[in-house]
Amino acid sequence: MDSNSTCSSEPVTNACRVVPCMDAVVKVFCVHTESNFSLPWQQRRQSSSIGSGVIVSGRRVLTNAHCVEHHTQVKLKRRDSDTKFLATVLAMGRECDIALLTVSDDEFWEGVLPVEFGALPALQDAVTVVGYPIGGDTISVTSGVVSRIQTVPYSVLASSKLLGLQIDAAINYGNSGGPAYNDRGKCVGLAFRKNISNDADNIGYVIPTPVITHFIEDYEKSGEYTGFPTLGIKWQKMENPDLRNAMGMKLDQKGVLVKRVEPTSPASGCLQPSDVILSFDGVDIGNDGTGHLNGRPPSYYIVAGIVFAAVSVPYLRSEYGKNYEHRAPAKLVVKHLHALAESPDEQLVVISQVLAADINTGYEDISNSLVVSFNGQPVKNLKNLVTIVENCKDKFLKFGLEFGQIVILETKTAKAATKDILTARCIPSAMSDDLKA
What we know:
Layout: H1 14-18, E1 25-32, E2 47-56, E3 60-63, H2 65-68, E4 71-78, E5 85-86, E6 88-93, E7 98-102, E8 126-131, E9 140-153, E10 161-167, E11 179-181, E12 187-194, E13 204-208, H3 209-222, E14 233-236, H4 241-246, E15 256-261, E16 276-277, E17 279-280, E18 283-284, E19 300-303, E20 306-310, H5 313-320, H6 324-327, H7 330-338, E21 349-354, E22 369-374, E23 377-378, H8 382-390, E24 396-401, E25 406-410, H9 411-424
Antiparallel strand pairs: 1-2, 1-4, 2-3, 3-7, 4-5, 6-7, 8-9, 8-11, 9-10, 10-13, 11-12, 12-13, 14-15, 15-16, 17-18, 19-20, 20-21, 21-22, 22-23, 22-24, 24-25
């Protein structure tokens, strides 16, 4: 077998272990144009990146979502070609950091076989990571073993954890999205990030096949990525024996205690606070509990220079940086990340900033203040606020903010001043496109 061959399902050979299906690995070139959540009517300066991907069945390519996030152009290059082919992003899951691409040009698919997926590896199983890391133009191969299997946060933007493989093979910039193979030449995951802690060396992470399979099956079932299910509860560990005893548990029983149930969750009505979950899907749960904006531009609304926005993790990161959980107002973080929604369309709406003008004198220092009500009506979400403000016939616009603060403007003059304020700052519209419908 030469170095360009692709491993099949034939019996294992030493050559397959050394050269695991590298022809299916592609280089990903992406031009990104990211939204500006602090100035939502603008976009940031475009940037470019490289990554890796792998060809799978159905004339499709898997890579990391972060490799093509905010894409304006994506191109793919095969190992045996110098041609870059334009690609289309079919689906993207940020919480699992997976994207599915395709290429319309038949030439791209000629003579290449898709990878086969293998089962979830065990601890100490050998893995080989293949991709295009920074430092060269040719393919790179690194080897290691599975050192840990556990749930991990896939992204700073994700509030949930998914199953991940920790490996000791080197994963560097550009490796993202490349396949990890077992010693039979089958793909057991996608490289997606490395541990950048100062006190941790040679630690990388791989998205395992169960997560990849869910993503692909979800797309094939609905024609889009709809996500991973969540139980919709808050729970606490039951490691304290007195706590277990007070809950009526037997000595040999283990589990977790339900603290709260999301009202919009399917679990609502089935579970309630103080319930104890002993097992899930037939798997016993230990006392320690062992056992995500879709790329659209940010929404905004401006009236009389007052900018309203919906709170999201990207928004908080834009305003307060990566350590937003410690730098943003505590009440805002707690409400957004830990409060339970009462309805599926519930949003936290804030006055993001005030574009100073004569009409809003005295309000210019307001920023990131939660909007509670408008003219006595509670504000459910940004779309709701736009509707009631635009249809307001009262003499005054009265916005109720947190801590009892109010903003009052004369309706007629406020709406009339909006156009001049937008023009002076080269803002194309008083609201984002999604709020115009």
